[in-house]
User: Which sequence fits this backbone?
């Protein structure tokens, strides 16, 4: 064994420089390998919980309506739907001639069986408590017509019907699947691909469903999928995914970190596509229940002390999109008037931050330069649970930490801990700040969890009866224009008038692929990679 | 033999109990873990408590866990919603393949290097020593990335990922086996050189034995005892290293299941992996004892 160190380092550089040297996959093949970052923890769409695994769901399953980028709903397995004037009855007309992969016919009875499945205790506690809170009963009117009755108005119900949770599962397999909650090859849907192999830790493999004739409105083609088979390989390490792509071992990857973006852009044999996610922006939420963030001036000072553009540029090398509201700008409910409505000029921000803190009584400085009031240092703690830290958010926190220290004398402590410790800190209110983004396809669903006084993840302790009223009103109507107006008021209240949130950036997804791969795109509802239905290999 | 078996079972019980208690004492409760980053309402919590029987006293939960364990039931994974036994059954094979291949690579490399370089010129010895030091001190993650960059991404000799045939096993086995070769090689060579200074070596040389025959027929046996003892250590290194190697190479296996389970505090899976590792340890140390007796007749007496 001779010492290979000297030769390896140039080899590493060579590896970086030699992208695209390998031949593209042979023309005419209709199989594709796609390297993905995240393993699904379940293959049952009704228990789906990972946005990063959303691209798999609609290969195997179809939902009832589909959702377009503007927030409107389009026909899919449900060809039409009617909502009664009181908003409590939904009548769905279903597509005829649709069959599940096990040969069973899709009809009103199967949709009812899917909805009723959520009633089984211990099946999906979260969905039955949130998304299906208003669900009353489902009745089969005729073989292809279903009547759903709600107990209260719920403007988000159609969004549920278009979500992975409403991916239609063959009622027969709901009964017979060996591991219902995990899913797998014996839990079947109606989708363009049939799951035929899942190897945990390695890959998931689908073959084409030759009978498929029912894509959602807005799909690029009709009939069965172009690819005869597709393999998703799990490669959690970003550098390994990129290496596998540049060396031609896989044809598509998702999850391209900012550090690798330029490498891919420079390679003439590769393409890179990016899409902002829907849902909420990655934001810092201030805990208003105790000092120092119970004082709005301190909250505003923290925001003003950070030059967000500079921080994002250094952490994400210019690939991140700055956020101005809780709601990401991909969402139809985003209020664009918030752009620049607070902060903006970094120099003015610094002056403002220091003036606000002086005014709030944090006048003295200790030996390390941090502000002090009544002998207590101006310390704010962020608690983050390690399994959920992604997207270089730890580095982002460090950059913010340096800025608030230098610009305003705030001691920002970042603690990345295990899930249990994080939950304990949240329960005991031992934190001043937490970061969060949500990928809900309807941003209103996220706002309902975060902002109401009794919201399920209201960790700011923000309590504004007016905001609660707006949110309830927006949830009760399915009129998109009315909802947009109400959510604009909510955003302004949270971001500007109360400053309980510090929006940082809009999360995005990336797909990099060999040039020969066509038809890649993003799910208009979520902004995450779309299913492989329209994907094909061109020449 | 019965005494040994009893001791083995005791080790397993202690391992199970210790990990159970450790996970119990760690901050946050099971409900928090199961809720994770998602919505959190009293109804959701009540649903989870009912589903997993978390309202029973801890001692009852522990005893029922032991009872099920005695019946070979490892429980259900919190995260993956499947039987733990089933998850492990699908993952044991790839990890066994990887660790055995890595062990074989490590042992073979160490053996060859030690035999070739023991008692030889300063240059050869120095070069081998330096290579061993590098392979021991460079983190396995980096070894893996370098191997991938060179042999997979640039030269295209081996596929990056999966457990598909022998070609896909080469790089992970090397990444995992090199550190073992490093340590084992040093120990083996040290043992060989000590043995070569013994009086019996002088006698053998006087009989006209060549240096090579002396090393392979006589000295190696002496040098093996410390090396075999070390093999117990590298079982641990292999199991630990498998975590990094499997994640890096996108290979199925116990390592990445264990990592997912620990970060997600998926108790039933963590416990099962601990038990399995303990069982492997007990088995291997028993086998090693037997091997030592075979190698060194003096121990048998």
Assistant:
């Amino acid at each position: 064994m001779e010492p290979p160190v000297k030769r390896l380092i140039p080899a590493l550089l060579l590896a970086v420089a030699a992208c695209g040297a390998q031949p593209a996959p042979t023309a005419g093949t209709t199989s594709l390998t796609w390297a993905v970052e995240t393993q699904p923890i379940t293959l049952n769409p009704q228990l789906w919980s990972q946005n990063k695994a959303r691209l798999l769901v609609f290969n195997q399953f179809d939902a009832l309506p589909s959702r377009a980028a503007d927030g409107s709903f389009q026909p899919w397995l449900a060809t039409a739907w009617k909502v009664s004037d009181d908003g409590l009855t939904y009548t769905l007309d279903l597509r005829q001639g649709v069959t599940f992969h096990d040969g069973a016919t899709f009809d009103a009875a199967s949709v009812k069986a899917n909805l009723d499945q959520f009633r089984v205790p211990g099946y999906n506690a979260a969905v039955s408590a949130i998304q299906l809170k208003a669900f009353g009963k489902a009745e089969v009117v005729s073989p292809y017509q279903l009547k759903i009755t709600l107990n209260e108005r719920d403007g988000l119900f159609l969004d549920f019907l278009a979500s992975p949770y409403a991916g239609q599962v063959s009622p027969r397999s709901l009964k017979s699947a060996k591991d219902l909650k995990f899913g797998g090859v014996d839990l079947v849907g109606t989708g363009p691909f049939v799951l035929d192999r899942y190897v945990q830790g390695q890959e998931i493999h689908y073959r084409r469903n030759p009978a498929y004739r029912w894509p959602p409105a807005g799909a690029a083609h009709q009939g069965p999928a172009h690819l005869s088979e597709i393999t998703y390989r799990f490669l959690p390490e970003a550098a390994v995914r990129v290496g596998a792509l540049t060396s031609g071992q896989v044809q598509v990857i998702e999850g391209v970190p900012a550090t690798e973006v330029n490498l891919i852009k420079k390679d003439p044999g590769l393409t890179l596509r990016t899409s902002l996610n829907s849902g909420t922006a990655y934001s810092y939420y201030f805990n208003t229940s105790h000092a120092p963030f119970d004082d709005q001036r301190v909250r505003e000072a923290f925001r003003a002390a950070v030059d967000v553009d500079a921080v994002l540029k250094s952490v994400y090398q210019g690939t991140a999109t700055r956020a101005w509201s809780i709601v990401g700008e991909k969402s139809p409910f985003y209020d664009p008037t918030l752009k620049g409505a607070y902060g903006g000029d970094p120099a003015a921000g610094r002056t403002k931050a220091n003036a606000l803190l002086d005014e709030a009584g944090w006048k003295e400085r200790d030996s390390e330069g941090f502000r002090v009031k009544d002998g207590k240092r101006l310390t704010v703690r962020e608690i983050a649970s390690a399994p959920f830290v992604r997207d270089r958010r730890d580095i982002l926190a460090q950059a913010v930490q340096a800025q608030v220290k230098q610009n305003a004398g705030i001691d920002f402590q970042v603690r990345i801990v295990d899930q249990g410790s994080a939950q304990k800190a949240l329960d005991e209110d031992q934190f001043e700040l937490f970061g969060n983004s949500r990928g809900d396809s309807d941003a209103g669903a996220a706002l309902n969890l975060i902002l109401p006084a009794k919201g399920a993840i209201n960790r700011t302790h923000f309590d504004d009866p007016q905001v609660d009223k707006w949110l309830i009103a927006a949830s009760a109507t399915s009129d998109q224009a009315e909802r947009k107006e109400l959510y604009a008021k909510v955003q302004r209240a949270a971001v500007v008038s109360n400053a309980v949130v510090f929006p940082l950036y809009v999360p995005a997804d990336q797909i990099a692929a060999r040039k020969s791969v066509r038809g890649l795109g993003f799910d208009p509802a979520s902004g995450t990679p779309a299913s492989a239905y329209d994907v094909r290999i061109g020449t | 033999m019965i005494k040994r078996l009893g001791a083995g079972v005791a080790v397993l019980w202690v391992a199970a109990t210790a990990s159970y208690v450790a996970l119990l004492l760690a901050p946050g409760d099971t409900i928090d873990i199961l809720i994770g980053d998602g919505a959190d309402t009293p109804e959701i919590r009540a649903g989870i408590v009912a589903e997993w029987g978390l309202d029973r006293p801890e001692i009852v939960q522990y005893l029922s866990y032991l009872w099920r364990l005695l019946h070979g039931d490892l429980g259900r994974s919190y995260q993956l919603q499947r039987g733990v036994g089933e998850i492990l059954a699908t993952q044991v094979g790839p990890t066994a393949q990887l660790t055995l291949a890595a062990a074989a690579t490590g042992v073979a490399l160490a053996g060859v290097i030690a035999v070739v370089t023991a008692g030889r010129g300063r240059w050869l010895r120095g070069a081998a020593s330096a290579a061993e030091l590098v392979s021991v001190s460079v983190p396995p993650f980096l070894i893996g990335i370098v191997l991938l960059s060179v042999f997979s991404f640039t030269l295209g000799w081996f596929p990056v990922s999966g457990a598909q045939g022998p070609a896909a096993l080469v790089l992970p086995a090397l990444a995992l086996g090199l550190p073992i070769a490093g340590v084992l090689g040093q120990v083996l060579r040290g043992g060989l050189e000590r043995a070569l200074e013994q009086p019996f070596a002088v006698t053998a040389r006087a009989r006209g034995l060549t240096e090579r025959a002396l090393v392979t027929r006589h000295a190696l046996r002496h040098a093996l005892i410390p090396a075999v003892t070390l093999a117990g250590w590298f079982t641990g290194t292999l199991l630990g290293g498998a975590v990094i190697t499997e994640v890096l190479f996108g290979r199925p296996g116990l390592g990445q299941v264990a990592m997912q389970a620990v970060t997600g505090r998926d108790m039933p899976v963590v416990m099962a992996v601990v038990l399995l590792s303990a069982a492997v340890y007990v088995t291997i140390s028993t086998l090693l004892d037997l091997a030592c007796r075979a190698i060194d007749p003096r121990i048998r007496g």
Q: What stands out?
A: Residues 88-300 of chain B form a domain with the MetI-like fold fold (CATH 1.10.3720.10). Chain B has 13 helices and no strands.
